[in-house]
Amino acid sequence: MHCRGGQTCITASQLLAEMAFEKGFKDTIAIPIIGAERRGAPIQAFAKISMKKPIKTYDSVVNPDYFLLFDVSLLDVPRIKDTIKEGVTLIVNSPNPIDTNGLPKNIKIFIVDATGICIKREFMHSSGPILNIPMLGAFGKVTGYYDLKIMEKVIKKEFGDSRVEKNMSVAKDAYETVRES
Questions:
Q1: Closest C-alpha to 128, from 11, 12, 4, 7
Q2: Angle at CA 119, nearest 5°, toward 118 and 123?
Q3: What is the pairing mode between strands 128-129 and 179-180?
Q4: Predicted confidence band at 146 (pLDDT cuts at 50, 70, 90)?
Q5: Looking at the 3D structure of the chain, how many domains does it have?
Q6: Across the strands, what pairs with 3?
Q7: pLDDT tens profile 75-107
């Protein structure tokens, strides 16, 4: 997952690991990369999930199967764009199809307007949209790794009953509107 500081991808990696475990994956782990980041700076987080065997490495992911991009402008950062390898499925927060110049040819690209969903549903914090839940809704739909019921269960456990309805409204919107680009 690549995002900017404050766009909640570290929390997203933790929630993704929990959702996969709840669904029945054998092992899951969230790996945040925390350093001297500040709000708005490019940051990354990883989640490893395994259906059949224990995860024995705790380092960052070099060749991901899926790549979640919380901010489409990060494609302009060469060190991020260069990590997108052939065969990956890219899920991008964007209302419009993205420019594929410079990207490998053998990738699948899905887009979801997570920012638009958050603005419409007033799912915001002081620095902007809370993108983790809509991006995870889109990821669940694209991969089939979990559904909205699993998301609701984990959200309730992590955030409490009072925050379930609003979180699930943005998750459902993203789940229903993510599309291949």
A1: 7
A2: 45
A3: unpaired
A4: very high
A5: 1
A6: 43
A7: 998 888 988 999 999 999 999 999 998 999 899
Range of the domain at 141: 2-180
CATH of residue 131's domain is 3.40.920.10
For 18-74, write each residue's pLDDT tens digit: 999 999 999 999 988 876 667 777 888 999 999 999 998 888 788 899 999 999 999
Residues in the chain: 181
To the nearest 10 degrees (0 to 180), the angle between helices 148-159 and 164-177 is 150
Q: Is the dihedral of CA 65, 25, 61, 30 positive or negative?
A: positive
3-state secondary structure of 39: strand
Distance CA 8, CA 26 (A): 25
Cα distances from 150 to residues 89, 157, 171, in angstroms, run 22, 11, 11
Task: Say which residue the tokens 């839940």 belong to.
Answer: 133
Angstrom distance (rounded) from CA 29 to CA 21: 9
Give the global pTM: 0.93
